[in-house]
Please model this.
Amino acid sequence: MDATAIPTVLVTNDDGIDAAGLRLLVQVLVSAGRYRVIVCAPASDQSGVGHGITWRHALSATPVEIEGATAFAVPGTPADCASLGISGVLFNGIIPDLVLSGINIGSNCGYHIVYSGTVAGAREAFMRGVPSIALSYGWVGSKSSTHDLKLAAEACLPIINSTLNEISHKKFPLQSFLNVDVPTDVSNHKGFKLTKQGKSMIKIGWKQTSSSVSIEGDATANMYISNVTDTEKKSISSQSQEQRWFKRVVQVKDDNSEKEEEDDDIDYKALQEGYITVTPLGALSCSEIDTLPYFRGWLLRIADPSCSSSL
Model:
């Protein structure tokens, strides 16, 4: 990236190209007048699909009008969109300097990062050698508004600008990408805090139902809300008597992992305290280091026939 050139930013997400979070992020970027903005995002909501990709069939790219940006909607996953967007094929040879995935309606902390399509969009770009940032806002249905999403986008501008500056001077570490979460009360956030991925996890169970159902709104937006509501679609009259339907339900928050994590730099804990959390991530989640001695001894026992014969 030429330090004197206007940087190109690709925006993607998992909530879909019509989602308010993406539209407001693009609006904030365009209004800043410092970037060339291109968009490649899912044609529909792809929340919770993780890092899935489309392999068996071709994907269409439909132009979408977004003021100040060149945009395409793709009927694929966030990883598909990020991969296509940085390939140089979709945007006539243009390869972005930075990929932004979001802003997601709902936080992405702890183990939920594994499910997150928002994080997957950024991870895909990272794995292809393009610096990237996943952006999420801690949406709470009874408190949040689209205005908060815009404030969240504006609050992330210093991170975006600094990242692009580091990229232009070839100082940004390519061994990581960033996962950024903005607290619900964005107007009174306490600033940026470097954090590490924790183990927070919402307990989700299953409940039998009589019809095909869908979770209302964005899946990750509801992760930390206990009163999630379901909208039941009309019953499928053609279903056989043997066929049964089950829906996911949010049960109670599993606080065990959070209680074990006393460090102040855990992503979920810092977010709840009002900080904008900045968590460097890699492509893979590594095993806890203290399990290595166990597995080392275990493999030695497998390799030693005398140990196996004693079982």
